Amino acid sequence: MRRLFGSVRARATLAATLVVALALVAAGAAVLISLYSNLTEQAGTEAERTAREVAADLAGGRTSDQLSLDDDDRPVQVVAEDGTLVAATEDLERISGTGTGAVRPQPRPSAPTTSAPGDDEDDDDDDDDGSTGSATLRPGEIGEEASLTDGSATVDGTTADYRFAAVPVEVPDRGTFTVYAGAPLAAEQNAVDTALTAMLIGFPLLLGVVAGVTWLVTRRALRPVEGIRREMAEITASEDLSRRVPEPDTHDEVARLAGTTNETLAALETSVERQRRFVADASHELRSPIASLRTQLEVAAAHPELLDLDGAVADTVRLQRLAADLLLLARLDAGERPISDARVDLAALAREEAAGRKNVTVRAGSLEVAGSRGQLGRVLANLLDNAQRHARSAVTVVVRREGDRAVLQVADDGDGVPAADRERIFERFVRLDAARSRDEGGAGLGLAIARDVATRHGGTLTVQDAPAGGAQFELRLPLAR
Questions:
Q1: DSSP class per residue in 141-163
Q2: Is the pLDDT of residue 120 over 70?
Q3: What is the predicted pLDDT for the residue at 308?
Q4: Longest dimension (CA), the chain
Q5: How far apart, in whole angstroms, are the C-alpha atoms of residue 480 and residue 72?
Q6: In the chain, is it the N or the C terminus that has fewer CB atoms within a 10 Å radius of its CB?
Q7: By C-alpha distance, which of 57, 52, 54, 46 is closest to 88?
Q8: How does pLDDT run across 181-233, given as a tens digit for each residue?
Q9: Mean of the pLDDT values across residues 66-71?
Q10: 343-478 CATH
Q11: Has residue 145 got a pLDDT over 80?
Q12: Which are the contacts of 69, defined by CB distance < 8 A and separation ≥ 6?
């Protein structure tokens, strides 16, 4: 069960079915209430019409004995002002919901019931038999408003529910009477029951259709997602990052998800390939100084007089620098960010790094940038090492401001960098001069480290032709706020 409802398709189907079910219940209840209200109102109108017909006969001068009350479907009572039943449907056996429960007319005094002047207030106070305000009617007048009540009655052995209407009438020389007439509610109740039965049968069928359609539509909509999941599972199992998930032609969220997934796979493939190449190159670069150092130590162990101490120190220093470069690259790849609130004077840093170097000229004004002094110093050291390695006679360092950026330029008067290789030189372990010795050319990590540090400081590092004909490396960093 948990696995079933763990499916997006199952949850979507359940949610859609519940929403439709609630909507159907609310709509069905509203329909039933409206239907019952309308049908009950119609029954009340029929009951009022019957009551007014009898009241009109009374107002026209007919006596109780002359009234035609033999309609079995319309129970009628005529009640005097004192609560005495003076006329009723012939086969009426029981009644409730009207002014009186009597079903047989009762004899009344022959003298008309009249009220002396000034007695109206007392009569009103004592009237608790369902009077409808007859004191305001004139002789022969029928009340404009009828009161409606629900009740039941038994006529000729048949019991049913009725809607009763009470209509007052002032009979000349006889007093006020109230006519109660009922209209059966059986048809209305049958209509409501029929509608309810239809809803109880139709709603589950409709919910079943909604659930089935939602299940099929959701399955169709999620089919590409399942394809993506299956392909990702196979990629994970095979560790083949060159594979890609299928991208549907629907141009919807699923298609965008597939596109983003493929972009992520491509970036991951590039990263893994870069890491593999980095490990292979690092292993290759470390092998040379380690092998050289081992050879010298083994020779020294066998023939101490042949120990090349300077060569061993040089190999050790080179190994130490290479290890430091690899460690810094590992930290940068791990996402290490410089401290953003630290301020570094770029001109002072340039003079500090240029101190002690031959043929290096610095022209710089004080400019502060935000970042790591150690990492930015490493950038300047790498650029100066590279410039001195390729310069013929001079290296120039310029620090200036352009808008909200600090610009540092390191130029030499060497042979420069071919335009086709100006991006390639920033890759790791890349050396353009393959014939150059490793001791002179380094491991090819300095410029890669310099660009990575520049990027993590929000800046850029590019190379172009220098005014003197060599290469000019340009570092741009945002000024400290």
A1: -B-S--EEEEEEEEETTEEEEEE
A2: no
A3: 76
A4: 160
A5: 102
A6: N
A7: 54
A8: 988 888 888 888 899 999 999 999 999 999 999 888 888 888 888 888 888 89
A9: 72
A10: 3.30.565.10
A11: yes
A12: 54, 76, 87, 88, 89, 90
Choose the CATH number for 253-333 among 1.10.10.10, 3.40.50.1000, 1.10.510.10, 1.10.287.130: 1.10.287.130
CA atoms within 13 A on the CB side of 141: 10
**Topology match between the domains 253-333 and 343-478:** no
User: CA geometry: angle at 334 spanning 331 and 335, to 5°?
Assistant: 100
Residue with tokens 């002179």: 440
Q: How far apart are alpha carbons 235 and 240 in whole angstroms?
A: 6
Helix axes 309-333, 253-302, angle to 10 degrees: 170
Report the pLDDT value the prediction gives residue 131, as an integer from 0 to 100: 43
Q: How far apart are CA 314 and CA 222, in angstroms?
A: 63
* Average pLDDT in the chain: 82
Can you give the residue ranges of every domain in the chain? 1-238, 253-333, 343-478
| Each residue's pLDDT tens digit, 242-286 | 888 888 887 888 888 888 999 999 988 888 887 787 777 777 777
β-bridge partners, 168? 178
| Joined tokens for residue 37 | 């209200």
Q: DSSP for 231-255? A: HHHHHHHHT-TT------TT-SHHH
Question: Which conformational region is residue 132 in: left (phi greater than 0), alpha (psi within -120 to 50 degrees), or beta?
Answer: alpha
Those residues with Cβ within 8 angstroms of residue 192's Cβ, 6 or more apart along the chain or in another chain: 32, 35, 36, 39
CB distance 105 to 64 below 8 Å: yes
Report the alpha-carbon angle 228-233-238, nearest 5: 125
Q: How far apart are CA 257 and CA 246, in angstroms?
A: 10
Condensed to tens digits (0 to 9), the pLDDT of residues 355-410 reads 989 999 999 888 999 988 988 998 999 999 999 988 989 999 999 999 999 999 99
Q: Which amino acid is at 355?
A: A
The reply to whether the predicted model has a pTM over 0.85 is no
Tokens linked to 311: 């060569």
